[in-house]
Design goal:
Length: 437
């Protein structure tokens, strides 16, 4: 990465376009509006509450990240998006049941103003959903043109200066790389010919990139993680990132697995199961959608523990993931982990984790951070894959020849060092004072 000569200022309004305005999206929107109104705090947001150490520890310089890099101000954010259901953000947030009704009522007016545009939708890719607020485009290419028109109209109607698009929609069925994804020309031809290897998420992503809008993927869908999209993002100088917000059970794995590896403790098996009852759980009740999520979750341990380097400790690990749709639980997901480990002289031990989390509450600050960092990257002319944002994703995108880094603490170091680099500060290596003299 070449250090930018300057970062364009974050002037004017920043539009946030969200395909999929369900529990996660409305929790983000409601939270931001509550922060604007002074009745909520951005807990969980690195951009708003995190600090960054600069220079030596003896210097005592640790400003807030939002004071160190020129991020867009929360008050400048304007929301819009698409959904298969026509309810505005207020009614959708009530239906999601994530946030307290008393909070929602205090910010009802700005939430009611956010009405979803008709969505690009095809039940062949998300089989457990059906809604009335969908586009009637005759072809996938027509759908691309309609989404581009939506983007242009939203920008003009709301007077926003810049835009970021972030996918908060459902998990599509499992899709593997296809040859039509290899080149921009092949991708465009496939869209024009209604090829089955082009799901709705790719239509949004392609439209966004053509409009010069950064695109971030919060689901494990293939979407921008194909050569053609990466090349298009580079050509347009547009940031892209993904895949799948790192929340819940996978967050726990990226916290625990690095610790076990750091202490050279062996892992024989890791069994994970979840229950949740929101729209995401309903979609994942379809085996083909679950497979997309399963692949995203299974990769984490493989890359953190590196069994090829430590065969005695991790070469025979048995890793199983299950997700169960359980309507009474709603958005309050519960994730159980049983971890069979072994230590000195091969003696067995166990770790049990029961994480009673709120999926959308964990995802909302990630969405806010990703939007603000993607906008920063755009203004710093950092087009293409934003690997420094791996901190936020279950299946981070990387350059073709690199394996993804899943260790949460290494990811955080990379993120903060990128910010230091952008501002011309020394990178932190954690060498002792004696090595500087």
């Amino acid at each position: 990465m070449n250090q930018p000569e300057s970062i364009a200022p974050a002037t004017g309004k920043l539009g946030v376009l969200i395909p999929g305005m369900g529990a996660v999206a409305t929790t983000v929107i409601a939270g931001v509006e509550a922060i604007k109104a002074g009745i909520g705090q951005p807990i969980g947001s690195l951009t708003q509450m995190g600090t960054i150490r600069l220079g030596k520890r003896t210097e005592g310089r640790s400003p807030l990240i939002k004071d160190f890099v020129p991020l867009a101000d929360i008050d400048s954010l304007v929301f819009g998006g698409w959904d298969v259901f026509p309810e505005d953000a207020y009614d959708s947030a009530i239906h999601a049941g994530v946030l307290d009704q008393r909070l929602l009522d205090q910010i009802a007016d700005p939430l009611k103003a956010v009405k979803p545009m008709p969505a690009v939708f095809d039940r062949n890719y998300v089989r457990r959903l059906e809604g009335s607020n969908v586009k009637s485009a005759k072809s996938k290419w027509d759908a691309v043109l309609e989404v581009r028109e939506d983007i242009q109209r939203f920008k003009a109607d709301n007077g926003v200066e810049r835009l970021v698009m972030i996918w908060c929609g459902s998990t599509e069925i499992f899709m593997e790389h296809h040859e039509v994804h290899d080149t921009i020309e092949g991708l465009e031809k496939a869209i024009q010919e209604n090829h089955p290897a082009i799901p709705p998420s790719m239509i949004y992503a392609y439209a966004a990139l053509q409009e010069g809008v950064p695109f971030l993927n919060g689901a494990p869908n293939l979407t921008v993680d194909v050569p053609a999209m990466v090349e298009l993002a580079k050509q347009k100088g547009v940031p892209i990132g993904g895949k799948d917000f790192k929340t819940g059970q996978t967050l726990m794995k990226t916290l625990l697995a690095p610790g076990l590896k750091a202490r050279m403790l062996g892992v024989q098996g890791w069994f994970s199961t979840n229950i949740l009852g929101n729209r995401d759980g309903e979609v994942l009740d379809d085996p083909d959608s679950f497979k997309t999520k399963e692949v995203s979750k299974l990769d984490v341990l493989e890359f953190i523990l590196q069994p090829s380097l430590y065969p005695e400790l991790y070469g025979d690990i048995y890793h199983k993931v299950r997700i169960n749709y359980y309507p009474p639980r709603g958005d309050e997901k519960e994730g159980w982990d049983n971890i069979d480990i072994f230590g000195w002289m091969g003696m067995p031990m166990q770790i049990k984790v029961d994480f009673l989390c709120r999926d959308s509450i964990l995802a909302a600050p990630l969405v806010l951070d990703l939007v603000l960092f993607a906008d920063l990257a755009q203004r710093a002319q950092m087009g293409g894959i934003q690997e420094w944002l791996s901190f936020y994703f279950k299946s981070p995108m990387t350059a073709p020849d690199l394996y993804p880094e899943h260790d949460l603490f290494i990811q955080l170091m990379k993120l903060k060092n990128t910010l230091r680099f952008l501002r011309g500060e020394d990178l932190i290596t954690h060498l002792g004072q004696e090595y500087y003299d």
